[in-house]
């Protein structure tokens, strides 16, 4: 065994093997993989090996596409048979909602180049004669679905990596990890120590326990999962003989099961409601290529539906039942990337679909390690999308919810209940008393809208307009015509202090720093000129700044800032030590002025001012800005003052007709002002030139990514963020939710990033990226909403107040 290596990958499942392979592909060959038993000894060996490209996040879908396409290559290069079968797959819909979902999935696939087809139940029956047609109303056929041999794939990755110089040590258990002061690692195994520059936790079923060796509590939990294999079936043999190929795979959402041919019989797996975690507190190290005791009673409800929907299956004998554990993160997507707060420590775990995702996970992690950038938009998989609040118990609640909903639709306006409420701010009870309907982001509850008095604070989940629609319309009118109050604590807030702070931030930010007492908007870029983040920067002293950014990206962004930290600069994540309320609307100044001695007249407190003033008796930082595009103030206080501040503003606002508004109204108001948002319009795959962030780009100073920006300005961006006015279906109006394809001249040319119904302007609006040559004001397009191509016109400016007079008044 080597005594040192550039990288030690811990875990030889399909994911660790893929990471090892991709590191060697990128030229890092002094790499080793350490496996406590044999390769595949965790959840890999007993997997059903199914794979598909479909995923709720298009960026993850792209990586799944890459994974599926990689198998032929590693098979050929390693000489190891991967057992690749590509019979295609049918996703079966039993009701209208599922059919809508399939249409949206098909639409999303269009701009990823996925060639999927909506078919009738009769066509589905022809392709998959085992199904009972009457239970379905349609299906989506994806030719890129198939299955592989899990062991073959893992060995193929390992074989390719070995050919390139990687070493693999089996029967070698990592039982401790120690970091040296220089950031390198001592990997302690039962066969000796390896000194490594980097470590990768690909420990699969034991990823949580490997994390604990270095004081990490990764939000990952294993669940028991069962599939059964039938005896050979005549129906299968007849189909194979008649067609010359195997049956396509099937996914029956109503039955919460998946099915595929396995030799002469069928393999049927379920995601049962009565799901059970495996080793919820600690996974035993003694577990070794073992299976768990099957519990058919637990999956009986799913089997009952399966036997109804596929009657021949009920007649077939069951040859084998497999019950094995595999891991999930709270939202079902992998945990990948550098661990916040630890140098040279990487994870690639919680990969619940190793055969759809393993390749993409390995590729992006290897790029991140070698190039410093994952090369793709992997936000949906970033380990930093969870914070410390994702505790063991939270993870348990969320993973069980996620597992049992695996085949359920999550509607775009749906907020899932498990693990909530967890983080709340002091005004939570007050807002609840005002009938708030709550949502959660990064663990924190925030008000979505306020149901009318006497009515239940609950939103109907739908792809179309919900019961919130008329109420949110009223909230928008309130802000545009009187004054609205909302909570704005769900921003990430950071404080930067210490000598040299200004110089440090200036090097990170595309905009000039504001003067003391002022705020401005800025972007931060990577060296290739892609957007790392978008922030409001408020300066309260020469070297004293508040930064406000997207709350869900708090751990993601703070990892980036801390990774670039300069000597003498202090960077603090403020979290809920600073909370906020926001006043917006033409009456906002009158309300606030009535409770402060500081003059808020525009000449004394112009737009984009940020100062420390007293509001009533409460010490506060007040920024004159709002995302609504109206006159507005964000008032930031320590949490112990937030209730008093709420009561003060509420009382003071009564003569001005104050009311409450929530996040849904905010999203509607910002759309009519053409304000983009993080992780929608601004993401790491876009550049500030594409995103038209020109006002935040000042080329009079040096900043990370500047050379790339200059080059792009010179040649012009390939695509441009555009703003569309859509004509919804008058019979059944629906607005975009994001990721819809944009059509032009009969071809898909772009995709929607986000949108909303702009209540005050009575327009259905959307943002999206299209090729720059098509981004011409007045140009006409179509946006595909729930299977319908709706007319869309590209607008040159905000539909409301394009000169920005309301917020400057
Ligand atoms: C019944 C069942 C059916 C499934 N069907 C499918 C399917 O159809 N399609 C699909 O995509 N996925 C399927 N999966 C999921 C799939 O198995 C996982 O996504 C995949 O195996 C995850 O691989 P991994 O490498 O992350 O983890 P693992 O396979 O668990 O590998 C982790 C490895 O790390 C080693 N290790 C851990 N700690 C240490 C240490 N301290 N020192 C040394 N070595 C260590 C372990 O021994 C293990 O070999 C299924 C899972 C189950 C249980």
Describe this structure in words.
With 809 residues, the chain is α+β, with helices and mostly antiparallel strands. The protein has 20 helices and 38 strands. The strands form 7 sheets. Strands 4, 5, 6, 12, 13, 14, 15, 16 and 17 form a 9-stranded mixed sheet that branches. Helix 1 (14-25) links the parallel strand 1 (4-10) and strand 2 (31-34). Helix 2 (58-78) packs across helix 5 (150-163) and helix 13 (468-481) crosses helix 18. The model has no long low-confidence stretch (mean pLDDT 96). Flavin-adenine dinucleotide (FAD) is lined by residues 10-16, 34-37, 41-44, 46-51, 173-174, 202-206, 210, 225, 227, 322, 324-326, 349, 351-356.
| Class by SSE composition | alpha+beta
Question: Fraction of residues in helices?
Answer: 25-40%
Small molecules bound in the structure, each named once: flavin-adenine dinucleotide
| Total number of beta strands | 38
Runs in which pLDDT lies below 50 for 5 or more consecutive residues are none
Largest sheet: 9 strands, mixed
Globally, the shape reads globular
End-to-end separation: 71 Å
Mean pLDDT: 96
Question: What proportion of the residues form beta strands (DSSP E)?
Answer: 25-35%
Q: What is the count of DSSP helices, taking H or I runs of 4+ residues?
A: 20
Radius of gyration: 27 Å
